[in-house]
Amino acid sequence: MVFPMNAPAQSLMRNEIYATLKREILCCAILPGAELREAELAERFAVSKSPIRDALLRLESDRLVVVHPRKGYQAAPVSLSDAADLFELRAMLEGACARDAAEHAADGALKTLDRFRSLDTFAASASDDPAPSFVLYNRGFHLAITELCSNKRLREATVDLIEQFDRLVIVSLQNGAPEGHSKLIAEHIDIIDAVQARDGRLAARRLSDHVTRARKRVLAALSRFAIVP
């Protein structure tokens, strides 16, 4: 039996349902293309269908859920064309963030990037997140660079974009993309060196090149499987 809640509690519950489903879609706990049934989700969260429907519509606006009229909801499939567009946009935005960080971030803030010189720092914290440890490390690195950007609009747009990428990385790893962790970490170190040296132009170029190389690897992996064109 579902009991009525007061307005603040309802608002909190709606936000928690949205956040939980978003996290599960992004980390592929809910697989791309999976059907999402209102009744099953309502039973899972012990709520009526209304907050479930609200969460799914919010996720549709995030392009993480597809609504099929009179049929229901589906976790958005991974699209090759959309992935290519996202990578192109990400290379531009993240490069701009890296340049801004190199030129404007405080010395102490730049020093915090040293924790991304090794994957080991993140291995112990991976157990409370369903994403693989390298995905957590990779996400953390890119968010850390972005969050040092002084331009609020650029920073927020880039953070939103980075959050879309976990499932692309996870799906590509599941579908045979070579991990190459040591090479990727070495590229991260090169970016950190440029940012900490306050060479904004070099930092922007290294980060953009890093994203472009990732684009080739991920799209090559995705193209070998039944992914939406």
Short structural description:
The chain has about 230 residues and is mainly alpha-helical. It has eleven helices and three strands; from the N terminus they run αβααββαααααααα. About 65% of the residues lie in helices and about 5% in strands.
Order of H and E elements? HEHHEEHHHHHHHH
> Which CATH architecture of the largest domain?
Up-down Bundle
- Rg for CA atoms: 19 Å
From the 3D structure, determine the CATH topology of the largest domain. Answer: Four Helix Bundle (Hemerythrin (Met), subunit A)
Q: How big a fraction of the residues is strand? A: under 5%
How far apart the termini lie comes to 43 Å
Number of domains: 2
Query: Number of DSSP helices?
Result: 11
In CATH terms, the superfamily of the largest domain is GntR ligand-binding domain-like
Oligomer: single chain
- Ranges where pLDDT stays below 50 over 5 or more residues in a row are none
Mean pLDDT: 86
* Alpha-beta content class: mainly alpha
Sheet having the most strands: 3 strands, antiparallel
- Write out the strand line-up for the largest beta sheet, numbering strands in chain order: 1-3-2
CATH class of the largest domain: Mainly Alpha
Number of strands: 3
- Percentage of residues in helical conformation: 55-70%
Shape: elongated
Kindly describe this structure.
With 229 residues, the protein is mainly α. It folds into two domains: 7-75, Arc Repressor Mutant, subunit A; 80-223, Four Helix Bundle (Hemerythrin (Met), subunit A) (Up-down Bundle), CATH 1.20.120.530. Helix content is 66%, strand content 4%. It has eleven helices and three strands. The protein has a three-stranded antiparallel β-sheet with strand order 1-3-2. A hairpin with a 3-residue loop joins strand 2 (65-68) and strand 3 (72-75). The longest helix is centred in the middle third of the chain and has 25 residues, at 80-104. The protein starts with 6 loop residues before the first helix and ends in a 6-residue tail after the last helix.
